[in-house]
Structures are given as structure tokens and as C-alpha cells.
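Pipeline run #58 for the internal structure catalog. This entry was flagged by the ingest filter as a single-chain record with no existing model, so it goes straight to prediction. Upstream metadata was stripped on purpose; only the residue string is passed forward. Reviewer on rotation: M.T. Logging verbosity set to normal.
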Amino acid sequence: MSTGARDPGRAPATPSREDEKKLKRDISRLGFAAISLNGIIGAGIFGLPAVAAARAGDFSPWMFVICGVLTLTIVLSFARASSLVRETGGVIVYASNAFGPFVGFQTGWLTSLSRVTSMAANANLMVTYLAWFWAPLDVHPWRGVALTLIIGSLTWLNVVGVRNSIGVIYAFTVMKLLPLSLLILFGLGKVDVATLFGASWPEMSGFGSTVLVLLYAFVGFEGSVVNAGEGRNPRRDLPRALVLTTVTITVFYFLIQWVSNAALPDLENSRTALADVAVVLFGAMGAALLTLGAVFSIGGNLMAGILSAPRMTWALALDGSMPRWFATLHGRHRTPHHSIWFYGILSIALGLTGTFVWLAVMSTLVRLLAYMVSIAALPRLERQTDAPELAFRLPGGLLIPGVAMALCFWLVLQAPLSAWLTLVVFAAAGTVIYFVMRRSTG
């Protein structure tokens, strides 16, 4: 790599991992925790309580505990991997280091597509909630204007610096947790301990599908490991942030479901579960409070997504698997601004046209497969890396990752054939891109 002077805002002739040193390391342990929390808590918790009640009745709070414990096995595996690697890219880096560049590219390619889809879908949902306050937002052209302004603003905030993005995420974190915390606080007076501990186990025939549905409320934690290259001490801070966030969210979900069951006897029939619960607990202002909570919750989720996902295409470009245009860093802000703008503009396009809907069916499947690749990479990462003294250590060695792998395998078997077919199509397209880029840079 040339050491001569060049315009700091331009990509090097041959992008490489050396460029990672130019990123600003502004993310602390609290920052990683906020990214992880906002990546997980999005719109799901505002609709899943009704689904959980319909499928598991009074036992439904325990279903969130079960899902949280199962998720924790995956999170612990990621915590160990993140303590061994400090480069930007997350699952891409884990897969590439262990299984080579092709597997790393496919893992990052498919995960990036899934995240663009989520960004477009959640932005649409955010506009829907905002329309509760101003009805014209629910129809064109105002809906399109609002969606463009939301995604465009978040994109610009990410371009002008990681520190600004983290500040916005902190604000969204407080504003999303406040109404949910009030819901729990005021609802605990209505709960019945005997009903909770006397609840019957749900039918085993639908247990697997219920876990798969509710587990959607826990995915997204992996977004924080993507930004390792912008952390002050990612090997120390990321593992603790991942574990703490998962445990906290599990307790939060358990309490929300318990309160919802107690406050709304016909919870399973509600289309706006937590808003209906808030009406019971707070009166007419309850729906407005929880609607604001939904807006802030989705906003934080969007911000966490756009903070992490563009770093994946940037990392792929550094590895030579994507056009070097994606590897360009902003001259002043030191952010991968081309990757960020590409992600934002594509999300706007998908959100405006609605073509993202058919991609959503494979979102959970892609993430589970990415989890499996990352867990499988762990033994090789441990052999390749001189583990630092402060590396996160797992009790029982590879026992917990083994349980996590078995869990993921069981869950992907629950996915429909249509999701697998969609996955194959995009994997084939990724294969073409990969080998074209390798030939052009070889």
C-alpha cells in the first residue's frame, strides 16, 4: 500500500484493512449497549404481546424468558468472538477469518440486504404511527415526504460523525424506555402472582413456531459488533454490553407481557396491544403516550441500523469483494459516507415503492444463518488469535456455543420453503458479484 500523500477524503487505489485505522474510535461501552438495545427493541414489542397471549395464554411471560435464555446462548458466543476481534464488520470478519473470503462475503451480503429491508419496513411503520397525530401522513404525497425526511435525516446524521449518531441513539433510548417503564410501573398493581406461577405449559405442537415468532423480538444485537472498529476498547466493552443488554431486555419483555396479560383480559384479540393496555392504565392519554413510545422505539431502531449496516458494505469493499467506491471515507468526518448514502437511498427507494415486503420473509432466516456461521467460526478464531488477557471467557468452553448452534439449527428448520428459495436467489446473485469483483481486482 502506498505511503505517499493523497487526498484523505478519497479511497486508496487498493482498499485494505489498513484504512480502518482512519475511523474515529468514539464508541464507549455505554454506546455499544445503546446500539445493541436499540437494534433489538424496535416495533416488535408493540405487537408481540397479543401474539404471545394468543399462543401461550397466562404462560406467555415465561415464553419471553425462554426466548431470552435461548438468545443468551447465542449472545455469549458473540461476546466471546467480539473479545477476540476488533475490526469493523462483525459477522463478516468472523466468517472471513475462519472460512475464507467467499463465506465472509456471502454472510455480509445477505445480512446487508436483510438490514436494508428492515430499514425500509420500519420507516414505513414509523410513519404509520406518526399518522396517529396527523392523519394526512397516512396518504400520499405526505407519506412519501415523511419517509424520505426520516431516512434522509438519519443518513445525514451518520455521515457527519459517529459521535452525533450515538448522541441521537442515547436520546431515543431514554424516550423509548420511559413510556414502557411507566407501563410496567403502573401495571404491576394489577398483576396476579398465583396466575403467573400456576400457568399451564402451552401445547408442544406449536411450541417451536411460537419461539420462532417471539425470538424476532430479540434479534438485532449483532448490529453492535459491526462497529467494533469505531470503539474505544471493543474487546473489553462489546462482550459486557451484549450480555447486559440481553438480560435487561429479557426482564423488560417479561414484565411487559405480565402486565399486559393482567390489564387486558382479551389481549390476544388486540391489534394495538400496548396502546390498549395504556388506555386501561392511564386513560385517554395512554394511547398517545404509547404511540409516542412506538415512534421513539422505531426511531432508535432505525438509527442503530443505519449506524451499523453501512459498515458491512464498507468492510466488504476493504476486502475487495465490493466496488472500492464503498470503501471511501469522508475527508473530515472519517465516516464511510458512500456506503452510508447508498444504504439510505436504497432504503428510501424500497420504502417508497413497497417492493421490500417480499424480502421480509427471509429476514429472520438470514440472521439465524449468520449466527450459525459466526458460532461455527469461534473455534477457529480462538486458534488464530492470541487471546488478550481481558478476553471474555465462556464457562464450559464450547458447550454454550454448541447449545446455541443446535438452537439455531432447530429454528431454521421452522422457516418456510419460500424463505429458503428467496435466500438461494440472493445468494446466487451475491456469488456473481463476488467472482466478478475478484476477477477485476485479481
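catalog note: The radius of gyration is 22 Å.
catalog note: Confidence is low (pLDDT under 50) at residues 1-17.
status: ready for reviewer M.T.
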